[in-house]
Amino acid sequence: MRFFNFGLVALSGLFATGLAAPAAQGEIKARELASVEVDVLDTRAEQVIFTKIQTTIVEVKKHTSIINSTVEEVGACGPCAAQKKEKIVSLVKSEITIVVGLIHALVGEVVELLSDAVEIVEEDKQKIVGLVLELIFEIIYTIQSVLKTLSITIFELLGPLVFVLLTVIGHLLTTLNVLVEGLLQLVFQLLGSVIHLLVEVLAGLLPTVLGIVGGVLSQLDLGGLICGLLN
């Protein structure tokens, strides 16, 4: 990456200067040292973002796979799905609670990077958006499968936990948006292509959901975009 390459060149230059110059003239300027530190820091922070999101996705999939495998078994037995409804709902709530904890931890780790100077190039921005969407869709499709199998709404499945889940995802998006300018808009634009899926999964909750995130959306000038997606 360009920051890493620049950092190596800068370090090599400083090292060569130190060897060539006498001790009296070989002191490294503070400004040059600061420049190198910032470049290395930028590279490290950028790599950390990728790694942390990827790690979270892997962990989240461990829990969604438990839900999916259970739903597949119940779906195959047909009528017995209704009999096992209570057990499945309890399992899903337990696993989604863990997923919420994983995303919350990711938000905390990303917040720690906010003080670092990070410049994300367009190519890397697209990769981060792709990872975020992978995380969101993994959760959405898992929940959709449960709702279809049990013929219930998301609130019947998760109760108030659904708002905790939506809130922590919202926190992740807004926090990443500080590091990756325009991330929120890109994510919402891409989600627009599957708005029918969101409407299906969030059936009956959209007014409440939009009320919760309305303040954030208006500040980010995304309110018009959301209204357009729903029309």
Features:
disordered N terminus; signal; 231 residues; membrane; transmembrane; mainly alpha; transmembrane helix
Could you characterize what this model shows?
The structure is a single chain. The protein has 231 residues and is mostly helical. It has one domain. It has helices at residues 2-20, 30-76, 80-83, 85-111, 122-150, 154-158, 161-179, 183-191, 195-201, 206-219, 223-230. The two termini are 41 Å apart. Keywords: Membrane, Signal, Transmembrane, Transmembrane helix. Residues 1-20 form the signal peptide. The chain crosses the membrane at residues 157-179, 186-206.
Mean pLDDT: 75
What portion of residues belong to β-strands? under 5%
Which structural class do you get from the secondary structure elements? mainly alpha
Span between termini: 41 Å
Radius of gyration, taken over Cα atoms and rounded to an integer in Å:
23 Å
Number of helices: 11
Oligomeric state of the chains present here: single chain
Relative helix content: over 70%
Principal-axis shape equals elongated
Spell the H/E element sequence.
HHHHHHHHHHH
Low-pLDDT residue intervals, each spanning 5 or more residues: 1-42, 222-226
Can you count the beta strands?
Answer: 0
Number of domains: 1
Main sheet, how many strands, which sense, barrel? none
Transmembrane segments: 157-179, 186-206
Signal peptide: 1-20
Keywords: Membrane, Signal, Transmembrane, Transmembrane helix
